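B., you asked whether I could sanity-check this one before it goes into the benchmark set. Here's the sequence:
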Amino acid sequence: MRFAVYGLGPIGALISKVAIARGYEPIAAIDIDPSKVGRDLGEVIGIGEKMGTQVSGDPRVLYEVKPDLVFHATGTWFHSIYRQLVHAIDSGADVVSTCETLSYPYYRYPELSNLLDEYAKTRGVTVLGTGINPGFLLDSLPAFMTTSMAILEEIVAVRSLDASKRRAPFQKKIGVNMDPGEYKQALASGKLTGHVGFAESVLLISRIAGLDVDRVEEGQEPIVADESISVNGVEVEKGKVIGVVGFGKGFVEDKEVIRIGMKAGIGFEDYEEIKLLGEPEITWRSTGTHGDLGTAAVIVNMAPRVLDHQPGLVTMADLVKAGYHIV
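And here's what the prediction gave me:
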């Protein structure tokens, strides 16, 4: 696979490392950071050797090199990365993106999704948005687990993670050390995002498992420290935000059939837990999944499936199949 990476922040750099380790060939790299433009990709991502590919600040480099696939990692909101996706499509490359709202784009962006889907089909290109969450842990994984259910009543999936082990940008987006009122205002205004993807995960579960959800609810709130703490060098004062907790729910005729939740904070336990209620009842629990490396792995692992898939804008529901339909 000859690939390009679009966006060389921490996640884009990690995706590049994983892809190179797999033996894929980097032929283009794009970033707007002046400190990265003009430098060798290997130097920028810190692998200790040069790749012979210079980082460009101009996405039109894709038209010259024509990669098989573009690994895209620049933003959360579909509307803000739309033009970037068009550049990739125009080069004839398939795309796998980390954009959270692209994981189920028809929920927040129905018109833009239809537009991109049609454009990708005219160019013979496939576009997928995915990642560890949304994309896998709280959606594809629990949905696929329903294959072993005879009768399914409800899916409950929860993720908890220790934000002290995560990058500073992640801690910032969940409001660590902010005043609770200030953080709520930042969430409401869109200045900070918290976790994005609760609704997308609910709808991915619905599509993969065939639950036909007709209504979705989601929300999140800051968690306040009841005492001052210090974990892994991260200090939080009493009364300040220590993390965030959120949920997504899916209903069929006012009956809750899907419930997902995530809590992320300094010093929290790392785990994922999935409960499938019905016959037989199943509970699965992990000791936690590495968020950044997990995202890079999902992105790179889905690339061959995207290359083999028919053109258009697709989701994990098109690539992951389960054998259940709710009774």
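One thing to flag: The two ends are 43 Å apart (CA to CA). Otherwise nothing jumped out at me.
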